[in-house]
Predict the 3D structure of the following.
Amino acid sequence: MRATLIYGAGDVRVEDVPDPVLREPTDALVRVLRSCICGSDLWPYGSRPTSEHGDRIGHEFLGVVEDVGADVSGLKKGDVVVAPFVWADNTCDFCREGLQTSCRHGGFWAANGVDGGQGEAVRVPQAQGTLVKLPVGEDSALLPSLLSLSDVFPTGHHCAVTAGVGPRTTVTVIGDGAVGLCAVLAAKRLGAEQIILMGRHQVRTDLGRDFGATDVVAERGDEGIAKVLELTGGDGAHAVLECVGLRPAIETAFAVARAGGRVSRVGAPQYPEVPLGFGEFLRNVTLTGGVAPARAYIEELLPDVLDGKVEPGRVFDTTIGLDEVPAGYQAMAERKALKVLIRPV
Ligand SMILES: [Zn+2]
């Protein structure tokens, strides 16, 4: 089969790899219907050291079950399923606490001999716990929004939930990438009345307004902070959703948090330290968030996607075939594409 491998910064290739086979009785084989490129794939794409052999890449996919191991129940050949971006047994103590990203028997895609999602097929470990069956056909128009359940929509939701978003909370979302826009959608879904989106790409912030943003702040740094404070009566927001992962974003996040407020970060942090000093101490600002346990939220978010109440799949603005994946990475890295959807066949 064909799959995507990364060889170094700016060097992504689609090559022939061995077809996946069942190795463990808990495995399933899934033929990929849709996959996509993640903002977090751009970090290795920007900085990975060059190597002779490529590594598989991709962690968001949706597909059709082709075969299951002897210990997998509840799934059969022909089922359409979505995979969260971390695989997990969904039964251990961490999983039962809703933290499938810390599963005692789980792990990441495209690591330690596990397939990546940007290919024609995937061997899914712990399939019964990992995969969620979708009540749709292979040609459903909902596939893009259903694919967003793999990562960006639950990640935005996790950011909103950990920040304590609910009715009557003011929210500031930092970042107009796919996760930031999904955080807006999640905050709206949770009942937030005022949602300020900080972003400067108008096509994206326009989609953010469609998703529920009440205000858009295009300015950055001190100017952006002043704008958010002005929009919140000088106090800042109860919930600040940091969806970027860079130091200026987390600095802005603390500066626009209201006293007693919460900053949640779900952008993979590209900074070693967090600026939590005496000022934040005096204002009782909490830092929360982290890698999103997408698996914990899929069943909760799925009905609204199936009903069309939310359309997180609108973050995909480009669709490509597998052979065009290198160009897809380039388009996302150059910010010409918001999020790239891959149709392997
Ligand atoms: Zn577990």
In short: The first helix runs from residue 42 to 47. The chain has a mean pLDDT of 97.
